Amino acid sequence: MTAATLFTSASARAASSLHISTNTYPWGTFAKRENKPFKLHSDEALEAIAACGINGYEPSVSRPEEFEGLGDRLRKHGLEMRSIYVGSTLHDEAQVAKNIEQILAIGQRAAELGTRIIVTNPSPIKWGGSQTKSDEQLATQTRALDTLGTKLRTLGITLAYHNHDIELRDNGREYHYMLSKTNPDAMKFCLDVHWVYRGSGNSQPAVFDTLERYGSRIVELHIRQSHEKIWREDFVAQDDLDYAQLAAWLSRHTIKPHLVLEQCVEAKSPNTMTGDKAHTLSTTAVRQVFAGF
Prior knowledge:
Elements: H1 3-16, E1 21-23, H2 25-33, H3 43-51, E2 56-58, H4 70-76, E3 83-85, H5 93-112, E4 117-120, H6 135-153, E5 158-161, H7 169-181, E6 187-192, H8 193-199, H9 204-214, E7 218-223, E8 226-227, E9 230-231, H10 243-252, E10 258-261, H11 275-289
Parallel strand pairs: 1-2, 1-10, 3-4, 4-5, 5-6, 6-7, 7-10
Antiparallel strand pairs: 8-9
């Protein structure tokens, strides 16, 4: 066996063992399209995820009670829950204390199950609405994120900021405010690659600008690909977004974030495969792209 063959074999083994998690949102989009149920935290859901070769489970959690019995089910299917996604309302001073208390209660239970990252996307004033937050509301939100992140650190959990497209309105006003005014020690960054792309007018250069500006804060990636601006069913390295280039940038800067697959379908997506098939193909592709991790 040649040295080149040995190196290739070693790389393939490393790629096959790379930890890949999945957020639960995409599973819901496929299930809805297929007119099938997808029950969070259930044996059926966890079995389907594990069958695709995925190692990790990133659910959306709203109450500590959701963790009841979840640890046993995760172990049964060989899954870890290194991260969870928790909604928050942090721009309204009247709601901040209650939200922080709730997320800390969730964090306490999640930490017992091995969770080390809580991803949050502070809610807009109204989902689907056009109203933007005032300067005062943004200042309230940054203080709340710093407070929450500092308190989560005492539980061994890192808080990671997440955005959709709404935060990139008005020249990215809210998005940049959150990532430039918060304490980097208290709050890190979950880069949802495609939402930055879409929110910036479908701009790949904007994604790489985000890497240059905030790359040092990235602790997690949400991974999704599109074709001609429409979400694909399966992830591939190169289409609208060049993930090989993104992975190379991260490697050059010795940044190895938690990798979370979030390949969803939307109204105009092709309909050629089941959610199980899409996730199996996507998991293999993600491992190939990020093999060096």
